Amino acid sequence: MGKRSSRDIRSESRLDVLHALLSAGTSTRGELAQVTGLSIATVATIVQELRGEGLVADAGSSALGAGRPTTMLRVNGDRGRILGIDVAETYVRAIVFDAALEQVGSVEVPMDESLPSVGSVTESIVRAVDTALSETGVDRAHVLGAGVALPGLISAEESADAVAPRWAARNVEVLHRLRERIGLPLVVENPLKAIATAELWFGRGRTASSMVIANLGTGVGAGIVLEGKILRGATHSAGEWGHAVLVLDGRSCRCGRLGCVEAYVGAPGIQQTLREIAPDHELARVPQREFIDGLARTHRESGGDPVVEEVLERTAHYLGVALGDLASIIDPEVMMLTGWTAWALGDDLVDPTKAELQRRAPAGATTGVELGVSTVRGSSVAIGMATLAFERFLGDVGLSTTRLPLAL
Amino acid sequence: MGKRSSRDIRSESRLDVLHALLSAGTSTRGELAQVTGLSIATVATIVQELRGEGLVADAGSSALGAGRPTTMLRVNGDRGRILGIDVAETYVRAIVFDAALEQVGSVEVPMDESLPSVGSVTESIVRAVDTALSETGVDRAHVLGAGVALPGLISAEESADAVAPRWAARNVEVLHRLRERIGLPLVVENPLKAIATAELWFGRGRTASSMVIANLGTGVGAGIVLEGKILRGATHSAGEWGHAVLVLDGRSCRCGRLGCVEAYVGAPGIQQTLREIAPDHELARVPQREFIDGLARTHRESGGDPVVEEVLERTAHYLGVALGDLASIIDPEVMMLTGWTAWALGDDLVDPTKAELQRRAPAGATTGVELGVSTVRGSSVAIGMATLAFERFLGDVGLSTTRLPLAL
Ligand SMILES: [Zn+2]
Ligand SMILES: [Zn+2]
C-alpha cells in the first residue's frame, strides 16, 4: 500500500521541474513554478540541485516586461548521452540522445534469427549499442544510461519454451548477459511501458491524468497511465490488450489462442481482412508495411478502391469495439493511438474508429473519451526507454526515488 | 498527479489501525503495530485520537506472557449506527450496522416501478431508511452516516433518457433529493466500488495489493483495486466489464449493444445458454434466482443432467475468456468472484473457470493469477457502502482525508 515520505514528494517535484523544462525548451524559474504548481522558492532550490549535477544550465536572460531581466534556464544536453534501444522482432534499433533527450544519432541492426533466442537478442543489442556509440563518436564514460525495450509475449513457440515462459524470466536473463557485455547503467522494460513513458513526457500525457496508449503495429498492446503513473501489473504484463479476445473462437492468433484483438487490428490481421474480402487483391500478399502504406495511398487517391474502403471500415469496427472494451474497463480520460499503422493511416482510421467507439457506448461510459493519434512519432519506444534510463540516472545521483521502472 | 502531504500519510495510518482492529476484533497496541507496520509510539498516538472520538474502547486486558497485562482494544460499536443501502433493480435493501460494522438489522422494500425514475428511486430509499431505523429503534441523531449504492448502466431505455444519460448526472439528482429527505450525512457510490471496498476491508483485499472483484448476478461488473485503492475512472465508470464485448456482433444485451459479457455470464445470459441447448428444459423459463439454484442443485445430484453440465461448461468457457481479458489488461494479483450467482454455483463454476483461464494464457500473463470466491457474503454492497459512510464520518471528525469516495 506504499506509503510516501516527504522525500518521495521532493523527488517527484524534481521530476516535475525537469519535465516542465524539457517540454518548454527554455523557461524562467517563475514559469516553472507556474507550470508545476510549486512555490518559486521550491523551484529555486530544485534548480540549484539540478545545476549542481550539471543537468540545468543558463540559456541567456529574458528582458520581457518592466522589471530587471530574469535568467532563462534549459536542460543541459551536453551533460551526457543516453541510449534508447528498441528490440523489435526483426531488428534492434539503438538511438543516441543527449541529456535533453534530443536525438543525436541512430542505428538499426537486423536480428540474427527469425525466432530470437536469449543469446541472439543479447548479441544484436550489443552490436547495435557498439555501432551507435562509434558512429556518433560517443565515449562510453559519457553515457548516463541505456534503456532496452524487450517485447513480452512474442509467439506460441517461444512461450512454450520451458526456460523462459514469462516476460520477467526471459528478460532477467537477457539483462544479466547485457550487464556483463555492455558496461553501462541499464534499464529493461516492456515496450508498452516505454511508449507510455514517451507519451507521458512528450505527448498528450503532459496534461492528461488517465490515459490509454494503444500501439498498432505488427502486434498491438496498450500502455495504461493512471494518475500520472504507468500501470505495470502484478506480473509486469498489464496492457496485453492485443491478446484480449475480440471474437470468441475467432481467427487464430500467433499467440496460440483464438480471436485475439491483434489477429484483427495488427497489420497482418488487417491484411487478413483484405484477403477475406478479395483474396486476389494486389495488396493481399505484399509485406506488411507496404500493405499499410498501400491502404493509406489508395484510400487517398481520387476514385479509390471499394475493397480498401471495406477493409478500413471493418478495421474501424474491430478497433472501435476493442478500444471500447478497454475504455469500459479502465474509463480513461484520453485514448491515443500510436505505432506505424496508426501513423500511416492517421485520421482515415481514427475518425471512423471514433464514430464506432461512440456508437457502441449508448450508456455513456465511453462517449466522452478523447481519441487521437499520438504526436510522439518515429521512435517512441526508444524515446521512452531513454527517458526511463534518464529517470534511473536521476535516482542514481540522488535526485529521484520514484517512478523508476521495476528493478530487475 | 496528486501530491500527498504528511497529513495524508497520517490519515492513512489511522485508517490502517482501525482496519486492523476491525479485522482482528480485539488487539493490543503491539499487535496493531506489527500488523500495520507502524511504530508502537505512532499506534499509541492514533489509538488515543480514536479513543478521543469514542471509536476505540478497552476490551479487558491480556495476561499472556511473563510481563504485566497489556490492554486489549476493540472498535466501540456503540459509538453510533451506520446505514448501508443497496439499490437493486427490483428492491432497496437498507442494513443497519454498528460502528464496528457488525449488522444490527435489515429491511428490504420493493422498488415501485419496473423502470425506476429518479423520483421512485428516491422514495424507495427514503422508505427503506425510515423502516430500518424504526424497526431497529435507532435514533437519527445516533447515525454516523448512510451510504447508498446506485447502479450505473441499467438499460438502453433508461440510458436513452435525455435527462440522465450518465451515472453522475442521474445520481447527483438522487443524492440532491435524498439530502433534503433523509437528514443524515450521505455518501453515494457505484455498487462495484462498494463491493471492492467490502473486499478491501473484510475479504481478500486485506492482503492483496491488486485485485479484480467480478460481481456475478443479474448484471455483471468488476471492482478494480490497484495498490490498495479503488480505480474510479475519469467518468466514474471504471469496471463496466459487463458491457465489454465477448462475442463480436453476438447476443443482444439489455444495454442495446451486441455480444456483451453480461449477455453470456449474467444470470439471464446463463439461462439463455440453457435455452439454446434445450429450449424445453424445466429450468428454461423459471425466475433467474430459482434458475441458478436449480443449476447448482441439479449439478450436485447424483446422476446429474447432461444439459446442466453443458450449461456449466459453456458458462465456464465464457467466464474464463472474459476474466482472461480483464486479467490481460489489468494483470492483477488476485481475482475474486462475488454476487449471488458466484455464491450459489461456487466451486462448481470456479474450478472449470480457473482451468479455462489458465488454458487461455499460454504466454503466461494470466497463468499465475489467483481465482476464488469471495468470503464476503450476503450483502457485500451494503457492507461496502456502510464502510464508505464510515470513512466519510472519519473525514468529518478530522480523522481521515484520504480514500473518501468521489464527493458529489
Ligand atoms: Zn493472441
Ligand atoms: Zn451490454
From TrEMBL, chains A, B:
Protein name, entry field: ROK family transcriptional regulator
Q: Which PROSITE patterns match?
A: ROK
Q: Which InterPro entries match?
A: ATPase_NBD, ROK, ROK_cs, WH-like_DNA-bd_sf, WH_DNA-bd_sf
Task: Tell me the protein family, please.
Answer: Belongs to the ROK (NagC/XylR) family.
Query: To which species is this protein native?
Result: Microbacterium gawkjiense
Pfam families in alphabetical order: HTH_24, ROK
